[in-house]
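Example with several molecule types.
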Amino acid sequence: MTAAAAALLAALLSAFAWWRFHYFHRNPPRHAPPGRDPVCAADGRIVYVEPVVFPDGGNAYHQRVGSVFDLAGGWSVIATYLGIFDVHVVRAPIAGRVRLHRIAPLGENASMGRSFIYAALRRPLPAGRRGYLDKNEFLSVDIEGDGRVLVVLMADWWIDQITPFVEDGAWIERGQAIGKILMGSQVDVWVPEGWIEPAPAVGDRVRAGEMVLGTRTAPR
Amino acid sequence: MRGVRSIGRLVRDFVIFTAVVASLPVLALVRQLRRRDAK
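Resulting structure tokens for the full complex:
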């Protein structure tokens, strides 16, 4: 091995160690903006925003989440992809009481590698590229307060764990940290259809707990 | 060590980290070309 190759490897290993043991685990303070509009749940890039109508609409993933929480009517799903350099602490879009529900994987977790590429190219993730939704492990957080919002923390195939920071039945504040995903994943926020006018568009970068997810259109 | 369950997983994390870092300039170039084509 030449000296240049050894130096490159050493630099790469040092960068990896810094990222893996320090940078990835950061939890910077966030200050929710004033008002009642929901804030973003995760740092990352929006990969799709789509409607789903129960009981018949949506795909297998929607049905998995919908059956757990007895969802009815129309919902909007706003999906954020978290890259490996994003903060992985997930925050509550609204204040309210939480119900936690772990949804077990159906077999092996599938890869979200394509999500990384589509997010990097600022393109919407096509429905045909979301096979992981039908298989992977989720932690669903139902928040009911001044409205009702679901936050789904989703594991990539190489995920070690999804760790909740709150207990089932606890009251949480808007923007409060509710959990952490180790490492790299997707977070979906489900809101009743028409409840907000989503602020970020597909490809936009968002920040948890600080950026408004959408403007409330009606009390509900 | 923080969040490490096995050496195998640590090696896997290193491979993924390296692949992501290596792909970033390529993806940035693709994005730039797409933007240029769109004009």
